[in-house]
Amino acid sequence: MKKLILVAAALLTAAGLQAQTTERHTMRFQGNEREYWLYVPDTLCAQRPLVFMLHGYGGKAEGYFPGMIECARKHGFVLCYPQGLKDPGKGRTGWNVGYPFQEGWKVDDVAFILALQRKLQREYKLNKANTCFSGMSNGGEMCYLMAHKHPEKFAAIVSLAGLNMEWIYRELKPRGPVPFIEIHGTADMTSKWVGDPDNHDGWGEYIAVPHAVARMISTNCCTHEVCDTLPKYKPESNTVVRHRYVEGVNGNEVRLYEIIGGKHSRGDKDMDTAEVLWEFFSGYLK
User: Fold this and answer.
1) pTM of the model
2) What is the domain extent for residue 81?
3) What pLDDT, on a 0 to 100 scale, did the predictor assign at position 21?
4) Bridge partners, 24 (sequence order)
5) 6 confidence band (pLDDT: 50, 70, 90)
6) Is there a domain that residue 246 lies in?
7) DSSP letter string over 78-135?
8) Cβ of 164: how many Cβ atoms within 10 Å?
9) For position 248, which CATH number holds?
10) In the chain, how many domains are there?
């Protein structure tokens, strides 16, 4: 009997995992075959949202941030993981955000994401007002680029250990407000909290995290800050200070999750990042 119970449990677990896997899709865009992985839950919530999740530099869409799949299943939203192309400088997968070694690269990832957004909204009859956007590291840089170029296309945006490149900060004026979060560790040595104004690390000049968030606070016309410290997620977790900048235009909020001593990560060890994202996104659905 015990053996039968164990076999049945194993089959149920396998079935559950299979039900929560993503499927590979492709689309032709600007002469390239672009790949993306998609999870569509059995039941979509009434607002029929779409959430984009972008991997970091050198990463893969397949298998990225599996915790978001369980979140999508639980809350009923479509989840899309686009795949970045290999750049000519280092030959690694990523997003064209103007790194020095990406100079001359003609790939327009902003246009690709917007084209993919339209495609998925049409195919799955999704609410056009309810697309949310997030990315990690290099994908986080795309969050700042999108927030500057096309804030009107997204209900909310969340950057995970992302940076605002200095060229974006100096050359682009945000075209409008959009609710925004930055989740970032103060001991991140890849995407440094204090910025890299002299390009010591080769990614190009980028501004300090608090200054990057300040641009979003100003753009959203937030009036004041509410600051608190989150309860410990696990005994070994870092302390997380949540800075909420509130009462922005249209009720928009900007947040900075400051992970004290946190390294380059999504913050999974210090909070339930997937649920933090969805709680924020869901507050701006139409």
Assistant:
1) 0.93
2) 25-282
3) 85
4) 37
5) very low
6) yes
7) EEEEE-PEEPTTT--EE--S--GGGTT----HHHHHHHHHHHHHHHTT--TT-EEEEE
8) 29
9) 3.40.50.1820
10) 1
